[in-house]
Specification:
heterodimer, A: alpha/beta, Rossmann fold, six-stranded mixed sheet, four-stranded antiparallel sheet, 13 helices, B: alpha+beta, two-stranded antiparallel ribbon, elongated
């Protein structure tokens, strides 16, 4: 049988050094800094004041508008500061600092719901919205929006995304092995909310133990299927995953909704299950702390708002001089300049590369080899878009499909001339809305 | 039978005559009328096609003038001279605008303290996408020179890591102002010489840590100004150029020397 996949893509060295390390709990810390903007959409507004006492799971940030997300206290203690703090994805932004009282008392709103299977889809949506759940694969899109498709869209399939195609990262892999039951419960809740019958779980073939565990878990489920996919980056991208599993193509500028599919990360499914069954909001996530620049790489369950410094200290600190610290994976992650940034809902990993693995890249001229075009999973011409971007012709960059780019980064990865293609395309995309109305 | 030479002369000559008379007819009857005034105005305009007038290049502006959609003093780079000449062609009165020039409201102009190494595109707009730029001050000039490329008059240059604006070449078209991702360039009246060279809206304590010359919003200048021309907004002093008499009181008292006096 042909292994299902998509056109283009690359297979970089996997470097999944933490794939056999069970998830550990990071001990409770003295302080967390919780940014109010951790998701796609409008930042939340603070719902507490400096000096307030908060309990674990208490709502401290109120979502603003339809595409936004609530923020909850991840420890119990006292709010000591509400001010701008370095943020992993942009300039310093408003964050709430909580000092722990060491008790980790849960807020009374967190209670088990034994009757969860009787809930109406709208009640589930409300629970998910209230729990501040966002996509945990990295993009952090508010999940309740994905669970509320417009009425004219017919959804027939749910896909759970367990690909984890980025090198180094293993948090989803470990979750699929250790929390198999809960993830499938989450999938059932999603399927019920969307009233669909057909469910798939897409996992790359390099995670055989996860595929086995998932298949074992769903052996009695008639409408679920685990699909083993080719190990190829970016297999975990929504649109590529849909193409590989269902052979449906999401149109340019469209959403998975347009082809009747909703894709959720396995971590998100787990969070949904925890919120619906246990009433617990999204206050922690699994983070892969990895790379040759870390003494003891690990998969850690970390409270949102924990500073990178504390996480790295727990893993034994840096090995040698750190050359580069990245939030996320090496291809789509964001390089960081300080360890005083907090773990946010979209932090899939903390990757530290030692100095000897990072080199200053000197850009050379394009030799028209077209390797970027060959590997591009969305069939655009990165070389041309980059050229137009560098000449301020953003209108032409758009003409050539700059807005279809998902910034997976493989064009720059394969480029023999080391042209910063993704940066140029991101730059063009950032200039477009203001440049052309 | 005519010999081939004569034949070809007749044929080619005939064709030439036919095409020529066709062209002659077209040039008389099908010509699109260009208002001689448009041509005359185009002669006067600087021809930089900078777009500061709000029309598509100089010819767009010239057409708009004839159709009375634009003011005679609309060409900002042309200044008073062009405005007067245009007005005389159109036979209208012209109100002379005060000439303004671009000024970078940052003491360091690109050489301020950094908080990390930036390796990537040499463009302010690209660098600003990453944490708002690599400078310790979020409001600082990034110094990668998008304004240099944007200036149609070659008035902006990079000298020893600092962005310099040649005041004689600057026409105040505002291209640099609109391209700067940090909004650190402003158009100021040419004859005024006192400026606040800071753009930081951070609190004084933060500014002090990262920049010796930044405005800390202490308000001393507001108090000492005899004309009440200075106001404090978002921790930053603003000079009302209409009221400023360039007495220099604020320049003297400013504890961080964030206020500059050019002529004095």
């Amino acid at each position: 049988m042909k292994i299902r996949s998509f056109r283009g893509g690359v297979h970089p060295p996997e470097e999944k050094i933490t794939s056999q390390k069970p998830i550990q709990e990071l001990p409770l810390l003295k302080k967390v800094v919780i940014p109010l903007s951790q998701h796609t959409g409008a930042p939340a507004e603070p719902a507490v004041k400096v000096g307030d006492r908060v309990k674990t799971g208490q709502k401290i940030g109120e979502a603003q508008g339809p595409i936004s997300s609530n923020i909850h206290a991840s420890i119990s203690g006292k709010v000591v500061d509400i001010s701008d703090h370095p943020h992993p994805l942009g300039p310093p932004s408003l964050a709430i600092t909580i000092e722990s009282d060491g008790r980790d008392e849960h807020h009374p709103s967190i209670k088990h719901n034994n009757d969860y299977f009787r809930l109406h889809p709208n009640e589930i949506r409300e629970i998910v919205r209230e729990a501040g759940i966002v996509g945990l694969g990295g993009a952090a899109f508010p999940t309740h929006v994905k669970l509320s498709p417009p009425e004219d869209k017919w959804i027939d399939t749910v896909i759970l995304n367990g690909c984890e195609c980025e090198p180094y990262l293993t948090c989803d892999h470990r979750l699929m092995i250790e929390k198999t039951y809960e993830i499938i419960q989450g999938l059932k809740i999603i399927a019920k909310t969307l009233e669909v019958t057909s469910c798939y779980i897409g996992i790359e073939r390099n995670k055989r133990d996860a595929i086995r565990a998932m298949r074992e878990e769903i052996r009695n489920e008639a409408n679920m299927e685990v699909v083993a996919l080719k190990t190829k980056y970016p297999q975990g991208s929504e649109k590529q995953l849909i193409k590989a599993i269902l052979n449906r193509e999401v149109p340019s500028g469209g959403l998975p909704l347009d082809v009747g599919v909703v894709v959720q990360n396995v971590g998100t499914a787990l969070a949904i299950s925890e919120a619906v069954k246990k009433g617990s909001p999204l206050i922690e996530r699994v983070v892969t702390v990895t790379g040759k620049g870390i003494k003891n790489p690990a998969n850690l369950r970390v409270r949102i708002g924990t500073l990178f410094q504390d996480v790295i200290d727990y893993c034994g600190g840096f090995r040698g001089r750190p050359g580069k610290m990245i939030m996320g994976g090496p291809l789509m992650g964001f390089a960081q300049y300080t360890t005083s940034i907090p773990v946010i809902k979209g932090t899939t990993g903390i990757l530290v590369l030692p100095e000897e693995e990072t080199e200053e890249i000197r850009e050379k001229s394009c030799i028209r080899c077209s390797r970027c075009v060959d590997v591009c999973p969305v069939d655009i011409s990165p070389n041309l878009i980059a050229k137009y971007a560098s000449k301020d012709r953003f209108d032409w960059a758009r003409e050539y499909g700059a807005l279809d780019c998902m910034e997976c980064g493989i064009c720059a990865y394969v480029c023999p001339a080391k042209i910063p293609l993704v940066q140029l395309i991101k730059y063009a995309k950032a200039q477009l809305p203001t440049k052309i109305s | 039978m005519l010999n081939p030479i004569t034949l070809s002369i007749i044929v080619l000559g005939g064709l030439g005559l036919l095409a020529g008379s066709g062209l002659a007819y077209a040039s008389k009857k099908l010509v699109s009328k260009i208002d001689p005034k448009v041509e005359a105005i185009l002669e006067i305009l600087p021809g930089a096609n900078c777009g500061a007038c709000g029309f598509a290049g100089c010819s767009g502006f010239a057409k708009a003038l004839i159709e009375e959609r634009a003011q005679a003093n609309g060409c900002i780079p042309g200044g008073e001279g062009v405005a007067n000449q245009v007005a005389s062609i159109l036979g209208v009165e012209v109100e002379v605008r005060e000439k303004r020039i671009a000024k970078i409201l940052c003491y360091h102009r690109g050489a301020s303290q950094t908080q990390f190494d930036y390796r990537g595109l040499e463009s302010c707009r690209a660098a600003a996408l990453l944490f708002g730029g690599n400078k310790a001050c979020l409001y600082s000039c990034l110094g990668l020179g998008d304004c240099i490329l944007a200036c149609p008059f070659g008035a902006i240059t990079l000298i020893k890591g600092k962005i310099e604006i040649n005041e004689e070449r600057c026409t105040g078209c505002g291209k640099c102002v609109s391209i700067c991702p940090k909004g650190v360039i402003a158009l100021v009246p040419e004859e005024k010489g006192v400026h606040v060279l800071c753009n930081s809206k951070d609190k004084g304590a933060i500014v002090r840590k990262i920049c010796k010359e930044g405005c800390i919003g202490c308000g001393i200048c507001v108090k000492v100004c005899p004309e009440k021309a200075i106001t404090l907004k978002d921790n930053l002093a603003h000079i009302d150029y209409g009221k400023c008499t360039e007495c220099g009181a604020c320049v003297e008292k400013c504890p961080t020397h964030a206020i500059e006096m050019v002529n004095g």
